[in-house]
């Protein structure tokens, strides 16, 4: 067993840069040399190891790494026993049963006898068992969306993000199996629990900072209660009385994805000097 805590992150693909940034913004200073598998973290008993994203769940449950960043979909498919410590607010997708646009499959029971192409056989079989259908899986590692056109399958189970892959292949969603996002997982038996907790808190600070902005504005005192409903903050907004009794100033954390809509609603309410400030890091 390594003396150091090991964090496994994807070596390539869309999650590689994000994982590196989250750790580095959380104060873990490391540099990957060429295509090396390990990087030592400066001044901390931690090694970062660069792995295939889909191997991270099983390597974490087997104790090769103590913490790992990977897709929640891959954790579900692996069946590995892991503690999900944090959802990272990115990589949101749905795993769905999809059928041809023009077909007559209308409900899960209609899948009886069908061949279902998927790279998520474990989750798919659990779904099929739950719905007591006699469909069986055709297990593949990718490109499942073309398998119906190739005559290999009658339906597919695949990830859907924007839905453009489905549209391009004349498919529609029959049923959703689950929603997933990128997660930070932990081996439940890690001996490095205190250090793992510290890393989780650091990454959490970065994730919250990326997810929220700080919104400040002035609002007529008689509209304060309504404004607080629009910006309830993470826990509670900070409210101050202005020199002019007719006005209050409010400061609250707001989800970045909702900020424009909220600014418009506040403006309609009569708020002025509405300012958004990015949060670099935080502890809440
Ligand atoms: C995933 C998934 C779909 C596509 C869905 O593939 O398998 O093909 O994304 O996204 P959309 O709804 O936005 O079109 P990915 O790009 O991860 O590559 P993969 O085929 O290697 O899984």
Describe this structure in words.
This protein is an alpha/beta fold and 284 residues long. The chain is built from eight helices and 15 strands. The strands form three sheets. The chain has a six-stranded mixed sheet. A five-stranded mixed sheet has the order 8-7-9-6-10. Strands 13-14-12-15 form a four-stranded antiparallel sheet. β7 (115-118), α4 (121-130) and β8 (136-139) form a beta-alpha-beta unit. The chain is flat. The relative contact order is 0.14. The protein binds 1-O-pyrophosphono-5-O-phosphono-alpha-D-ribofuranose. 1-O-pyrophosphono-5-O-phosphono-alpha-D-ribofuranose binds next to β9 and α5. 1-O-pyrophosphono-5-O-phosphono-alpha-D-ribofuranose (PRP) binds at residues 142-143, 145, 158-165.
List key phrases describing it.
D-Maltodextrin-Binding Protein, domain 2, 8 helices, 5-stranded mixed sheet, binds 1-O-pyrophosphono-5-O-phosphono-alpha-D-ribofuranose, alpha/beta, 6-stranded mixed sheet, 15 strands, flat, Alpha-Beta Plaits, 284 residues
């Amino acid at each position: 067993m390594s003396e150091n805590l090991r964090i496994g992150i994807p070596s390539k693909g869309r999650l590689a840069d994000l994982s590196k940034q989250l750790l580095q913004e959380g104060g873990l200073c490391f540099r990957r040399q060429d295509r090396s598998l390990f990087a030592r973290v400066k001044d901390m008993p931690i090694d970062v190891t660069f792995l295939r994203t889909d191997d991270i769940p099983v390597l974490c449950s087997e104790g090769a790494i103590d913490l790992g960043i990977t897709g929640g979909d891959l954790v579900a498919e692996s069946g590995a026993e892991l503690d999900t410590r944090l959802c990272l607010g990115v990589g949101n997708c749905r795993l769905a049963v999809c059928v041809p646009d023009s077909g007559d499959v209308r409900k899960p029971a209609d899948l009886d006898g069908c061949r279902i192409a998927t790279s998520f056989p474990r989750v798919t079989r659990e779904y099929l068992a739950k719905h007591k259908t006699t469909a069986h899986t055709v297990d593949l590692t990718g490109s499942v969306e073309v398998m119906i056109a190739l005559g290999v399958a009658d339906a597919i189970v695949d990830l859907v993000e924007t839905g453009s892959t489905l549209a391009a292949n004349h498919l529609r969603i029959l049923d959703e199996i689950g929603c997933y996002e990128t997660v930070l997982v932990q081996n439940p038996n890690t001996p490095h629990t205190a250090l793992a907790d510290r890393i989780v808190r650091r990454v959490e600070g970065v994730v919250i900072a990326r997810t929220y902005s700080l919104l400040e504005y002035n609002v007529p005192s008689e509209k304060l209660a309504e404004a607080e409903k629009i910006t309830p903050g993470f826990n509670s907004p900070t409210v101050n009385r202005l020199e002019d009794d007719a006005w209050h100033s409010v400061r609250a954390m707001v989800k970045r994805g909702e900020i424009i809509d909220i600014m418009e609603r506040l403006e309609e309410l009569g708020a002025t000097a509405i300012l958004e400030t990015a949060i670099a890091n935080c502890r809440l």
